[in-house]
User: Which sequence fits this backbone?
């Protein structure tokens, strides 16, 4: 059941937000005054002490609190501006960039048909397509297939049809005893606005069955930065959805997320990692999450996700790490475009 607020209550919340913003501005002004005073004071310190003070100072400042004076001083003393790297802020800026100029190659690939055309050109395994761009009333599911909206996100509206006539909803983990019940749920998702468009895709199920019953596959989601992998999220959707987070070297990642829903997964192979890198290098954009489906026997492309859900939920350290991955990829892209442009030094 939805939560509906009166207009008066909404106005009260907006006023509270404005007051909080005003307090924040005052605090930022105070931090700016203090940091500029530090910048002046350190000029008379030895280089080693100066660097130590500046490293401590920059750790306490956010990107929008770095003044011109501080930035110049930090640069001159070769203090890394790691605070300027924020995956969250960069994805928000990418959204604004798309609003200003509606062309970003990663968003074209958000459409599953375009994604499959792209993947087919690269020769990467993907599920067979049985139907696409069809309204829900034209979809005829078959055993061992998956129904999904063409432009869905966060697994909304994804249903797996097993070999015994049962259906599993990926997002909720709910099981349906009949195909029609699942199609009715898909219709309800459109009526509620969760699924925006009545355009559906039916494809092969990449996974396993145990005596005809569904064994949900594992999702491997590679956070890719123009040819490099920064982070891998493994998702298990059995009785409950659980998560395992990996660094590209196979060690566990500490992201601050999913503390109560974590498990130790089976991870990924070197071949899986190289496949993700190969695909990412062909997409001329700083960031793309590339999602794969892994079963006992198969590893296949699933979909592209240009703006992952919960991208703002990483802890500060990991947000900065992913921000560094993003900026590094952006720099490599600038270098690529420059080398292939008509302007040469």
Assistant:
């Amino acid at each position: 059941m939805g939560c509906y607020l009166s207009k008066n209550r909404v106005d009260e919340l907006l006023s509270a937000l404005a007051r909080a913003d005003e307090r924040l501005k005052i605090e930022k002004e105070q931090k700016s005054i203090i940091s500029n005073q530090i910048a002046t004071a350190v000029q008379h310190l030895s280089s080693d002490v100066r660097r130590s003070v500046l490293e401590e100072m920059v750790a306490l400042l956010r990107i929008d609190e770095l003044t011109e004076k501080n930035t110049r001083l930090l640069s001159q003393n070769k203090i890394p501006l790691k605070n300027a790297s924020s995956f969250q802020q960069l994805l928000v800026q990418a959204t604004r960039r798309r609003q200003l100029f509606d062309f970003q190659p990663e968003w074209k690939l958000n459409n599953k048909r375009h994604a499959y055309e792209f993947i087919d050109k690269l020769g990467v395994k993907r599920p067979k397509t049985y139907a696409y761009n069809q309204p829900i009333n034209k979809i005829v599911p078959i055993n061992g297939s998956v129904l999904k909206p063409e432009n869905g996100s966060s697994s909304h509206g994804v249903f797996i049809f097993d070999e015994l006539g049962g259906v599993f909803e990926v997002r909720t983990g709910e099981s349906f005893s009949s195909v029609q019940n699942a199609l009715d749920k898909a219709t309800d998702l459109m009526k509620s606005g969760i699924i925006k468009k009545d355009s559906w895709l039916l494809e092969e199920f990449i996974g396993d069955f145990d005596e005809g019953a569904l064994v949900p596959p594992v999702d491997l989601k590679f956070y890719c930065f123009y040819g490099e992998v920064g982070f891998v999220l493994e998702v298990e959707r059995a009785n409950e959805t659980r998560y395992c987070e990996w660094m590209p070297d196979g060690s566990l990642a500490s992201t601050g997320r999913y503390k109560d829903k974590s498990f130790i997964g089976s991870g990924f192979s070197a071949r899986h990692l190289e496949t993700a890198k190969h695909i990412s290098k062909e997409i001329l954009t700083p960031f793309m999450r590339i999602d794969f489906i892994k079963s006992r026997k198969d590893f296949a492309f699933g979909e592209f996700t240009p703006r992952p859900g919960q991208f703002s939920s990483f802890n500060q350290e990991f947000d900065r790490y992913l921000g560094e991955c993003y900026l590094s990829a952006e720099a490599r892209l600038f270098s690529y475009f420059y080398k292939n442009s008509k302007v040469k030094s």
User: Anything to note?
Assistant: Residues 16-84 form one domain. The mean pLDDT is 89. The chain is about 40% helix and 20% strand. The first helix runs from residue 7 to 41.
